[in-house]
């Protein structure tokens, strides 16, 4: 199933069901794509306007980056579903004998790494999107400033949501050194970019009230 191409109501219905995918990771990627698109819309409403001629070239460059990020985040909706299936199967592997326990442990380490890689990438893309939203909010059309604020809120939510999917998987890893390396990367992104998202929101709010 192409979760990034189904109708919105179908995605939400499957998300609400007991089906293993999509889950929080895929939903975070979708929210991140929507947040990025909102920033992109600000750019679309800015280019071609005489009032913003001095930032026209920059807006086109920002929009090009946003176009790419939107596509990448939508692809991660699909990718998240792909990596979760092997993980769900691994959890169900038998562990009655010592050999089975060893094999399950071996497989789990492999699939947990794969399952972590996607939400980590979602986080990274959301950080890139927030960097763009800083510029869209500061230099884009004042008529669309609220959309830049909403985009920042969405990307922050996607960033935080994806982080939980990292942490739930690193928690199960036996290789604690690798797990802590991933945790530290996720921690750093959260610390820096939730603050950036909040600054965008507060800036937009201050200009609207």
Model description:
The protein is an all-alpha fold. The chain has six helices and no strands. α2 (about 25-45) packs parallel to α4 (about 100-140), α2 (about 25-45) packs antiparallel against α5 (about 145-170) and α5 runs antiparallel to α6. The model has no long low-confidence stretch (mean pLDDT about 95).
Question: What is the CATH third-level topology name?
Answer: Four Helix Bundle (Hemerythrin (Met), subunit A)
Distance between the termini: 44 Å
Helix content: over 70%
Subunit organisation of the chains:
single chain
Number of strand elements:
0
Overall average residue pLDDT: 95
- Specify the overall morphology: elongated
**Count of discrete alpha- or pi-helical segments spanning 4 or more residues:** 6
CATH class: Mainly Alpha
Largest sheet: none
- CATH architecture grouping: Up-down Bundle
Q: What value does the Rg take, in angstroms?
A: 20 Å
Structural class: mainly alpha
Order of helices and strands: HHHHHH
The CATH superfamily name is Formiminotetrahydrofolate cyclodeaminase monomer, up-and-down helical bundle
Unreliable residue stretches: none
Strand content: under 5%
List the helices and strands and how they pair.
Blueprint: H1 8-16, H2 24-44, H3 56-91, H4 98-139, H5 145-170, H6 176-208
Helix pairs in contact: 2-3, 2-4, 2-5, 3-4, 4-5, 4-6, 5-6
